[in-house]
Structure formats: structure tokens, C-alpha cells
Design goal:
heterodimer; A: mainly alpha; B: 272 residues; mainly alpha; 11 helices
Chain lengths: 266, 272
């Protein structure tokens, strides 16, 4: 209990430090947020142009596809906002020998890395995600119930942890190889599959994004539950189970990696 | 000429070594990008199944597959990292080290990247071209490979690379104003990606937009080479688009020189 209190207090200090840094470069952060907004806008334009050609995408309407896409941005954005620093581990922190600083401090290394930075750029994704959901919500005809609302609120943090778990595990590979940023990138590209209805893929792809690299649980499956109310046990239940498994794997790989770590020198 | 070559050769070498040192990292990057291609592939497949037409704005499904993978090959071949490097050097002051040397600033970047490119070309072009041709052969039942179109594609890619290189140099000078290049770069990549047809073939756009986009320099980046390879531009139109590419090469080359001359006078290096 005392430890958790200590961690929370430290988190507050780190965040305060980050906010100070941000105030120093205000204009740059606006540029970053707009950059990520832009990235999503071009994807929307792409969907809109495609739907000018066809009435529906294998039975999915434009509004439904956009809703799933918008939902996918929420867990992604939260993870991006809070734990973006893990990218740096794989790309340069270990390679440049900067990782040593974490080892010299009396804090859990993983905790320290995760809370050290706040990535405000992610607001671009979050704003866009919320906007897309709000725009499409009236036209996708969702049947609401109290249970559903509770389940949706509960599933978002777990969907976020799927990202975080995969990022921890792939970043930790850098402890052996010095550089693993592009392995994380590779996994993130798989994530693009999950932004669209899974029914457009063949069985092999469907199997991979469900059970091997389970990104489909960050977006499509929960969104399908929201839209149709079908299979809560699979769509929501499995999301929670899988996210916990991935976090355990991530922490395990990280701890193994720390033991194998040799400084790159600087 | 020979002397110039001797001066810049070490930069070519450095570029080649850079790529080979981090080859595992590079391979993962490429696998990630190919996965992105497959996402597009499945979306387009669903689109063609959902639509009633076999032909959409001049593209059939096999042509679309070819288009997606050629787009990936082309954008990898013509990619240029100048923006980021210049921005970083302005920020940390190491630009001073390049300026005091009696060599051209732009050329050092160009030659370093050529080394990089050489490795990319060697590894990527053969499997991708063979793959694309295999797809075309399976769908049409005969070999479609056209050596003339292929050579023109290479020429067009060279032009496209030069446009991209000088454009990125121009853009890199934005670092004098905006310090946060990551965000600005992201914005630029999205706009360029869309206007150059990497996101969606330009023929899918409304007519007037398409006509405007085709003249803009961005279509000269990815779209023109891919169209040439696919045999969609031939005869007079091929000459027209190649000439347009050349025009943009010269324009951005001139602009980058101009910006360099203006901004070098305003450069202040702190430390370095």
C-alpha cells in the first residue's frame, strides 16, 4: 500500500515536470497535435472516397466503419498519451547508453520509463476518435442498457493495456539487441488491420489478429459488441483476459531483459 | 568530375555502411510496411466484392494489387530523410561542422543517401518486381513485363527522388521557425501521401480535383512512376509527365538554393 502511494506521488511529480516542459514549447505541441489529427483526416477522406463507389463494404455502412475506426483511436490514444516513452527505449535509449540512468535510481525501471513522459500529440488521436464516435453515434442505432455502458467503460483500460503490453515486450527486446524500435513498428502495423471490420479479411489474417497478435481486441471486437450487442463473453471478456496475459508477458520479458542488459557505453 | 566523385565517395560509403549495420532493424521496417500493403489489399478486395463493377475508375482488382505494391516499392525507392537531418543539425548546431568544410552542403546529404539507396534497390527491387509480374501473369495468363516501361519507370523514379530530395531540403529549413519537426513532418507526410496518390489512386477523386492534383508536384513523386510502369501513360502523355517531373526537379532545386542562401545569413548556432 505504501509503495502504491509512493508511486502515485512520483507519477504526479513526473507529470508536473512534463507540463512545465510543454509550456516552454507551446507552439510545437500544437503542431504535434495537428499532425496526428491530419493523419486521421486523410484516412477518413480515403474511406469517404471509397464509399462513394459502393453502397456498403461487405454489409458494413460508412457510419459503422467510421464508428469502429473512431473507437480504435481511443485505447490507442490513451496508451500513446501515457506510455509513449517505451518507443524511445527501442529506438535510442538503450543504443545510446542512456538507459543506465534508470538503473541507478531507487525506482522500478519499468514504472520509471512508463511515467517519465506525457505525449501530448496523442490528443490529436483522442480528439478525432471522440469526434468520430459522436458524429456517427446517432446513425448507427445502438441499443443501450446499463450493463452495456458499464462494460464499455470497463473495457477501454484493458484494450489500452493490449497496446502497452505489446510495447513493453517489444521494447524490452532492445536489452538484447540494442535496437528494437522497428520491431515495435512492425507490430503496430498489424494494428492497422484491427481498425476495419474483421469480416473483410481471410481466415489466416483473422486468426493472426485474434489469437497471435491480438490487436483485433483493441478495436473491432469491443466495437462490434457496442454496435450489435452480440457475444459479450467473447468480445469483452476475452479482451480483458488477453490484455492481462499480454501485460504479464511484457513484464516477464522486461525483467528478463534487465538481467541480460549490458550498457552500450556512452 | 572525377575529382568531385573522389570527394563525395566517402559519403556514399558511409551511407551503405549505415544501412548494413542496422540491417535487422531495416528488415523489420520493411516487413511492417508490407503488412500495411496487405491492409490496403484486403480493403480494396472488399471494395471490389461490394461494388458491382469489375472496373473502378480505370482499375481492375489485379491492377489495384499491382498498384498497391508498386506504390510501396516506389515510395521506398524515392524516400528521402533530408528534412529530419537538416532540422536536427540546425537544432543541435552540428550544421556548423558541415558549413566550414569546402564541400556543398546539399551534396553531402545527397551522396550519403545514394549509398543508402543502393542497398535498398539491391534488396527490394528484384523480389517486388518479380512478385508484381507474377500477380499480373496469374491474372491475365500472359507475361506483361515491358522492358521499355520498366526503364522509363526507373528514369521517372530518379526524377521523383530528386524532387523529393530538394523538396525535403526546402521543408527542412522550416526548422528555423518550428523547432518540433516530428509534428511538422507528420503533417507533411500525410498531405504528400494523399496528394501523391499513395493513399488512393488519383483517378478516384472528383474530376476537377484530379486535374489539379496531377499538375501539383506531389503527383510527380509516386503517381507518375507507378502509372508509367503499369502502362497507363504511354506515348505523348508519358513524355508530358516526364517533362513535368523534370520541371519540378529544376524548380525545387532552384528553390532549395535560394532558401539556403537566404537562411544561411540568419543562422545562429548556439554551442555546437
Amino acid at each position: 500500500m505504501r509503495q502504491i502511494k509512493r508511486m502515485l506521488r512520483m507519477h504526479k511529480i513526473f507529470v508536473a515536470q512534463e507540463l512545465k516542459r510543454m509550456m516552454e514549447y507551446k507552439g510545437d505541441f500544437i503542431v504535434g497535435i495537428i499532425g496526428f489529427l491530419f493523419a486521421q483526416c486523410t484516412n477518413m477522406l480515403f474511406l469517404w472516397i471509397i464509399f462513394r463507389q459502393i453502397p456498403s463494404l461487405m454489409g458494413w455502412t460508412l457510419n459503422q466503419v467510421v464508428f469502429i475506426y473512431g473507437f480504435s483511436l481511443i485505447p490507442k490514444g490513451i496508451d500513446h498519451l501515457l506510455f509513449d516513452n517505451l518507443w524511445a527505449i527501442g529506438h535510442w535509449t538503450v543504443r545510446k547508453g542512456d538507459f543506465d540512468k534508470y538503473l541507478t535510481r531507487p525506482v522500478n525501471t519499468l514504472f520509471h520509463v512508463m511515467v517519465e513522459r506525457l505525449q501530448i500529440d496523442a490528443l490529436g488521436e483522442l480528439i478525432m476518435g471522440i469526434a468520430l464516435i459522436c458524429i456517427t453515434l446517432p446513425s448507427v442505432a445502438i441499443q443501450w442498457s446499463l450493463l452495456k455502458i458499464l462494460l464499455i467503460i470497463a473495457v477501454i483500460p484493458f484494450a489500452t493495456l493490449i497496446y502497452t503490453g505489446i510495447k513493453i515486450a517489444t521494447a524490452a527486446i532492445a536489452f538484447w539487441t540494442k535496437r528494437s524500435g522497428n520491431i515495435t513498428f512492425m507490430f503496430y502495423m498489424v494494428n492497422d488491420f484491427a481498425k476495419y471490420p474483421v469480416s473483410i479479411y481471410n481466415n489466416a489474417v483473422r486468426f493472426i489478429i485474434t489469437y497471435i497478435i491480438p490487436f483485433a481486441f483493441t478495436a473491432y471486437y469491443p466495437a462490434e459488441y457496442i454496435l450489435t450487442g452480440n457475444n459479450p463473453l467473447f468480445n469483452i471478456g476475452l479482451t480483458i483476459v488477453i490484455s492481462l496475459i499480454l501485460m504479464v508477458i511484457g513484464i516477464f520479458v522486461w525483467n528478463k531483459g534487465i538481467r541480460a542488459y549490458e550498457s552500450a557505453g556512452s | 568530375m572525377k575529382k568531385k566523385f573522389r570527394i563525395y565517395m566517402p559519403f556514399v560509403n558511409a551511407g551503405m555502411q549505415e544501412t548494413t549495420t542496422y540491417r535487422a532493424n531495416w528488415i523489420f521496417l520493411m516487413i511492417g510496411n508490407v503488412l500495411g500493403c496487405f491492409v490496403s489489399y484486403f480493403i480494396w478486395k472488399a471494395v471490389f466484392i461490394s461494388g458491382n463493377n469489375e472496373n473502378m475508375n480505370g482499375f481492375t482488382m489485379p491492377q489495384m494489387v499491382v498498384y498497391i505494391f508498386l506504390m510501396f516499392l516506389t515510395s521506398t525507392l524515392i524516400s528521402s530523410g533530408g528534412t529530419y537531418d537538416i532540422g536536427e543539425e540546425i537544432r543541435d548546431g552540428s550544421i556548423a561542422m558541415r558549413i566550414i568544410k569546402p564541400i556543398s552542403y546539399n551534396s553531402t546529404f545527397l551522396f550519403q543517401e545514394l549509398g543508402n539507396k543502393f542497398m535498398t534497390v539491391c534488396i527490394l527491387i528484384v523480389p517486388l518486381v518479380v512478385g508484381v509480374e507474377a500477380v499480373r501473369c496469374i491474372f491475365t495468363g500472359s507475361v506483361q513485363f515491358n522492358i521499355f516501361n520498366f526503364l522509363m519507370y526507373i528514369l521517372s523514379c530518379v526524377f521523383a527522388y530528386l524532387i523529393n530530395f530538394f523538396f525535403n531540403i526546402c521543408f527542412g529549413f522550416i526548422a528555423f521557425i518550428i523547432k518540433y519537426l516530428w509534428g511538422a513532418n507528420m503533417m507533411k507526410n500525410c498531405i504528400v501521401g494523399f496528394l501523391s496518390g499513395a493513399t488512393i489512386p488519383l483517378s478516384f477523386l472528383p474530376d476537377t480535383l484530379e486535374r489539379v492534383f496531377l499538375i501539383l508536384p506531389f503527383a510527380s513523386l509516386n503517381y507518375t512512376p507507378v502509372m508509367i510502369y503499369m502502362g497507363m501513360y504511354s506515348g505523348v502523355s508519358m513524355i508530358y509527365y516526364l517533362a513535368l517531373q523534370l520541371f519540378w526537379v529544376l524548380t525545387f532545386w532552384g528553390l532549395s538554393k535560394l532558401l539556403w542562401n537566404v537562411s544561411i545569413k540568419h543562422l545562429t548556432v548556439q554551442g555546437g
